Predict the 3D structure of the following.
Amino acid sequence: METHPIVRLEQAALQRWCTGDPSGFLELSAPDVTYFDPFLSERLDGLDKLTAYYESIRGKIFAPKYEMIEPCVQKVGDGAILTFRFNSYSSSEGAQMRWNCTEVYWRTEGTWRILQTHWSFTARE
């Protein structure tokens, strides 16, 4: 089974993210993107605010090992919803972080753009 193009875009952005480079996600995001993150007290609205946030953490996030688990793309017209679980592992502390992610994509002029991102922690077993 062939990997959906949105999953490939997300994998490439995650690979950059895990080396301290958030630019992959910024390049995918629409100008009117909205963003939820458990480390933030409120939603970020717009690419300018997301860029400012990502620039504040650029070079600070590293995960030499990570997993994108069970990615699922549900397409509706020119939109698509990507959901997956994400586990990241820190080499320095051996710590593991477990996440749920939802990305809403929109295809405009033949290009997929992220309209909405929501990251949350996965409940521990």
The domain at 5-118 is CATH 3.10.450.50 (Nuclear Transport Factor 2; Chain: A,). The helical segments are 5-17, 23-28, 47-57. The longest strand covers residues 96-108. The mean pLDDT is 94.
